[in-house]
Amino acid sequence: MQPTYFDHAATSPMRAVAIEAYVKHADKLNPGAAYAAGRRARSVLDDAREQIAALLGADPIEVIFTASGTEADNLAIQGLFSAASSSRVVTSPLEHPAVAETVRALEAEVDYLGVDRSGHVVDFSALDTPAAVVTCMMANNETGAIQPIEEIAARAAATKSPMHVDAVQAVGKLEIDFHALGITTLAASAHKFGGPRGTGFLLARRSPAPSAILHGGGQERGIRPGTVDVAAAAATAAALQEAYDEREAEHTRVQRLRDRLESEICRQVDDVVINSREPVLPSHLHVSFPGADGDSLIMLLDSLGISASTGSACHSGVSRRSETLEAMGLTLDEGIGSLRLSLGPTTTEEDVSAFSAEIADVVQRARLAGQR
Ligand code: PLP
Q1: What count of other Cβ atoms lies within 10 Å of the Cβ of residue 158?
Q2: 276 in ligand 1 pocket by Cβ < 6 Å?
Q3: pLDDT tens across 156-195, in order?
Q4: Which PANTHER family did the record assign (predicted)?
């Protein structure tokens, strides 16, 4: 049985170009060393930095390699907060835990942007008062909802509030111009666009720069000290280049597959709520099957060789909606019986057919499980 993978938003298989770059440079030594081997490693790292900067409208010096998207979010939010004199933070209730938990861990006065049932920020009034940090995602990891980031950035700039953008789901899929956005920092994660896992980067303007949260040898402008993994940086740049080279064609192809999935689900299953609403990434389809048990949906699909994820989590035996779904106003039933299908470069028509052949039966059984 050929596995059917609908979890690209969690992690996407490494692209062949990234594996090639990784293998080619796996022998590189310390890019900070002054001798010849160090200079060779440094030159590969510089090329990766320049390539990433050019693709995202940043200067090479603004690219800070990190160990993950989570680390990039932490370095930016904690670092900007510690550099500021105020203790007010503005964020959205839709954020990934990498941002939401980081904000929670600050001793900050937190104000939230208002969101609607489609999972988009619609109330900007919290931005009218200056903040130490404004932090908002570019696209949501669960629904794929694309946020009005230009407007949020402009409103933050009007009060001279530094702004961080978690663009982990958007990089490689949306056109991004870091300078044109006028934001302070932006976080990305390589494994979401076909680069290696355990690698990310932060784009960070020269000023205001985040204060150091990690302390060490001063690498990466002192914002992320530690010897950089040159092979991972080269693989990240190669993956990002290919993602942007293919972007328009992939956007159309993946959107068509997503739309087919959506219409198959709506045709075969009664009482379906589509939670991914425009403007939305073409790769995401978030659906609720009220009355169904989320864990059963995942397990039943898994037994058929189909990988997807749910919007509910089980804490101490009690099923809960994710915070994002709660903020959007989904009922408990809608949140618990939900499924996130996320598509990517390896998704095919056959994957959609394999899923469509099983979904009616899977939902029926997950609804029976939900009655227990
Ligand atoms: N931010 C968003 C929106 C994400 O979707 C993720 C991962 O799912 C992260 C941050 C964390 O990225 P990483 O897995 O590289 O730590």
Answers
A1: 11
A2: no
A3: 999 999 999 999 999 999 999 999 999 999 999 999 999 9
A4: CYSTEINE DESULFURASE (PTHR11601:SF34), CYSTEINE DESULFURYLASE FAMILY MEMBER (PTHR11601)
Both tokens assigned to 69: 């998207």
One DSSP character per residue, 245-282 reads HSHHHHHHHHHHHHHHHHHHHHHH-SS-EE---SSB-T
Q: What is the pLDDT of residues 258-307, one digit of tens each?
A: 999 999 999 999 999 999 999 999 999 999 999 999 999 999 999 999 99
Measure the CA–CA gap between 338 and 309, rounded to whole angstroms.
Answer: 9
Query: Separation of 284 CA from ligand 1 center, angstroms?
Result: 15
- Residue 359 Cα, ligand 1 centroid: separation in angstroms? 28
- Where do the domains of the chain lie, and which CATH numbers do they carry? 4-12+247-370 (3.90.1150.10), 16-245 (3.40.640.10)
Q: Taking the CA atoms of the chain, what radius of gyration do you get in angstroms?
A: 21
Closest ligand 1 atom to Cα of 190: 15
**CB distance 140 to ligand 1 below 6 Å:** no
Q: Which atom of ligand 1 is nearest to the CA of 141?
A: 5
Distances (CA, A) of 169 to 11, 26, 165, 177, 267: 10, 27, 11, 15, 29
Active site (annotated) includes residue 266: no
The answer to whether the pTM exceeds 0.85 is yes
